[in-house]
Structures are given as C-alpha cells and as structure tokens.
Amino acid sequence: MTDRGVLSSFDWRRGRVRGAARLAHTVLLVLLFLAGLGPVLWLAKSAITPTQDTLRDPLALWPNGFDFANLATAWTRVKIDEYFLNTVWIAAGAWLVQLLVATTAGFALSVLRPRYRKALTGVVLATLFVPAVVLLVPLYLTVVDLSMINTFWAVWLPAGANAFNILLVQRFFDNLPREVFEAARVDGAGPFRLFWSIVLPLSRPILGVVSVFAVIAAWKDFLWPMLVLPDPAVQPLSVRLPALQRFIELDVFLAALAISTVIPVALFLAFQRLFLNGGALSGAVKG
Amino acid sequence: MRGGGPATVVFLLPMLVVFGLFSWAPIVQSVVMSFQETNLVTAPTFAGLENFRTVLADPLLWTAVRNTLWFAVLALLLGYPIPLVAAVLMSEVRRFKGLYSTLAYLPVVIPPVVAVLLWKFFYDASPSGVFNTLLGAVGIGPVPWLQDASTAMVSLVIEATWAAAGGTVIIYLAALTSVPPEQYEAAEIDGASVWGKVWHVTIPRLRGVLLITFILQIVGTAQVFLEPFLFTGGGPANSTTTVLLLIYNYAFANSLGGDYGSATALSLMLAVVLGVLSAIYFRLTRSWSAS
Fold this sequence. Notes:
The complex is a heterodimer.
Chain A: H1 9-13, H2 15-47, H3 51-56, H4 69-76, H5 80-112, H6 117-126, H7 132-145, H8 153-160, H9 163-174, H10 178-186, H11 191-202, H12 204-220, H13 223-228, H14 237-244, H15 250-270, H16 272-276, H17 279-286
Helix pairs in contact in A: 2-15, 4-15, 5-8, 5-9, 5-11, 5-12, 10-11, 14-15
Chain B: H1 6-34, E1 36-37, E2 45-46, H2 50-57, H3 59-79, H4 81-90, H5 97-109, H6 112-122, H7 130-137, H8 149-176, H9 181-189, H10 194-205, H11 207-222, H12 226-232, H13 243-253, H14 260-290
Antiparallel strand pairs in B: 1-2
Helix pairs in contact in B: 1-14, 2-14, 3-8, 3-11, 4-8, 5-8, 6-12, 8-12, 9-10, 11-14, 13-14
C-alpha cells in the first residue's frame, strides 16, 4: 500500500491508536461544522427570522416564526437587486478584461516569442513584488485624471493589470505541444487563427482557473470600488452593505448579507476541485 | 514563428495599455509623489524628504506600527498552529475526506465584508450577544470584544484567522501528500511512535511550506485594512489603527483634500519592508516547486 500517511495499516489495527485517531477526527469534524458551516447556517436562518426573535434569542435553533418577506424587502425596497446587478456587472467586466489581457499577453510572450520577451516578462513579473498599497493613491489619481470615477471602467481596467494571471497562462501555454503550432503554420494559419482556433480551445483548464478566481476576487473587493465608486447607484454589494447597516432593520440587513453570500458559495460548491487542489497557493499569493 | 512583427504588437497591446496606465505608471508616480507636495488644486511642488519627515514625526505612525506588529504576532499565534494541526489530522482521514476540506474552506469564500458585518453582530458586547451567550453558558464573560481597547485587536484577529485558515489548510494538505511513504516506513523500522513520526518525518518535510506560509501571513497582515476599517474604524482609542488604515486616513479621510504626499511616502516605506519579504517568498517558492 503506497497511499498512506503518518499512520501505517499496522497502527490502524492497534486499538489505542485507532481509538485516538477516530476521536480526534470526530472532534475535528464537529469543530469544522461549527466554524465552517455554523455561521452560514446561522445567516440563512436569521435572514428569514423576525428581528425580535434574532435579538431575543440569537442562538435559537428554530425561530418562533418565519418571515420570508425579509428577502423580498431587501431585494426590492432596499434595492439589493440594483447593487447585486452592479456586482455582477463589475465581476463580469473584470473577468473579461483579465481574460483578454492574460490570454493575448500569454500568447504573444509564449507562442510568438518576440526577441524582447525576457525583458517584457521581467517587467510584468516585477509588479508582483509591489504591494497593492503602493498603487492606492497614484492609481486613484490616475482614475480621477481619466474621469473614470463612478464608472465601472475604474474597476475593470485596473483588474486587468494582474501579473499573476499572465504568469499562470504563460506557463500553461509554454507546455502546449509546439508541433501543433508548427503544423498549423504549415497549413497556412496566421497568428490570429492560431490564437483563436488552436491555443484558446486547448487552454480551457487554465482559463477556468483564471475565470473563477477573477469573479471571486471581484465579488470580494471592497477598498478599491469604495474609492472609485462614491455614487451609491453604481456601488457593488460589498461597498453598499456597510452603509446600509445604519438605516435598515436588522432582519432585512441579515437577509441582504445572505443574498450577497449565495453566488460565491455556489461557485465554490460547483468548482470545489479548482479551489481545493491546484489553485490554493495561487489564490493565496494575491491575497 | 519568432520575431516582433506587427501581429505580436497587436497581441501585446492590451497588456501594454493596461499595465502601462494602471501598474507601471502609478508605481513610478508613487515614488515621484512621495517627494512632492500634492493636492488636486495647485500644481505639485518638490518637497524633498519633507513627507517622510512628516510621517516619521507623526505619533500615530508608531501606534499604527505597534498595532500592525501586534496584529501580526496574534495572527501568527492563532493562525499558524491551528491550520497545521487541522491539516495533519485531516491527511489521516480515511472517509469523507472531501467533506473536511470543504467545511474548512467555506469561510474563505464568504465575501469578507459580509463576514465582518456578521461577526460584528456576533461580537455584540451585551450579555445577550451571540458569543457572550455561548461563553455565558460555560460561565465566562460577558467579554467587551470590540468595545474595549484591550480586547478589540484580539477580536479582529480571531475573525481574520477564521476567514483565512481554510486556505492555509489546503496548502498544507497539498504539501503533506508529497511526504514519501518510505520515510514513514523507515521510521517505523527504527521503532518510532506515531508522535515520533509526526515530529521527525512530517514536520521537517513541511519546513519549506511552513516558511512560505509564515512570510505570506506577515505580508498579508501588514496590509490589513478591512477588519479595522469595518469593525472599529481604528478605535477604541486608536487601539486598532493599522498602517494601511493610517495611509487611507492620510489620503482619503479628509473630505477637503488628502495629504497624498504623506500617504505615498508611508506606502513606499511599507512597500520596501514587504518587498524584501516577497523577494524571500519568491525565491522559496521557486526552490520549493523545483525540489
């Protein structure tokens, strides 16, 4: 048996070790349920519970009464629908820009290989060492100069300047079989055809990784959209929620929080493998 | 297909525009601005080291540095051992392994703003707050959580650890699969106990990853903004004002126009510290992925 961890099959047969391992695993599972799923379930329950119930007994497993109207109130009267739509637009645009920049740049650097390829890759990767905080003020002033304040472009375009995406895509392109490119060239395919009909279809896995992380990152972002989208009419959920807290009732507010959580959690459950296998380290780098 | 023909330039164009406008130029500009007196009304003037002097003379800076370091220390004490223990245990799980990692990762995908606003409610300082009810059941509390300067930072770190631990667990789990089984077998032949195997085989094998997560965590905590901004706004009594919050306050808190010079000067100083750490990190990941 090659697939093993610390414990050998002999250890697993020893009663004391097996008992201790079982106990540790059960305790861990209970803790993970409480810490991982607990807050999500609490939020789901409180989203449909009247304020008074939540305040009087926040830990009640079963509320006295359900109030599904919270969700409807949050969606229409508090205009969560608008902020939700803004978030979707922001995420979709940021995704498109990131994908466009990463694939074209990756293709040029990895497949077309210009002579200045090394230098250019270096200048792109160097930005990985510059923490985002350095960009904050000058980037804000740039966006002011370009009169992009209160437009989605202010979020979309800077999202494209992501060296990590380029690194990922370029590495993937580097490993594609060169013979395919040569064969396509012999058949008379130019660079645009090569890009569109051969390289992109072969790159679905990496495009999936970049896409999911782009959408999740856009959904999470707070500081930057808060700075460049001061007008509530264009703000995404993350920026609007803290402001809303001050003037809406608790149960409706919790319903709004629950609505904001649905999409990222659904994406995670649908693409679990992507998050739990390769992508973990890459996600951690951009923080 | 080698060369720098017109097609290559067309493909490079999106990257050149986006990086030029929103990455390379601002980086250069931040260096320039840190030596300038800038506001949005009059033309910027050269100020020499004045901005750096102003920032270094600001008593709040040292409070912010101390708070950020305190945050980092607390985050290491909490956020470092917990994912490691969880990952080592999880790697031994034989059934429902996927369930464990899914549960551990779930907090990572909850939008950070939602998580903070939710925890703010949990942290209610009254005896009927969620956490105080739980602690009250075992006879502790009520804890003032965010309301008191002595507990506010700890509360922030607990939430931040909860939000980030899942990602670290997944990194450790991946590293644990790279431990060759022969090493465990060799240790068993030498008569090693279960603890002996963990201590002498597993942990040394993880040394590289442990160092990487250590640096990642410091780089991450040095830039913490969301938690102090939304939980406490830096209070009570500036006990949770972090460096990034101070930068934000210099530049954006004053509605009459920001002190952009001081803000960029402080960001540059922070960046130099973080740049050194990131460079170490990059070297480590390279040697780690090569081995």
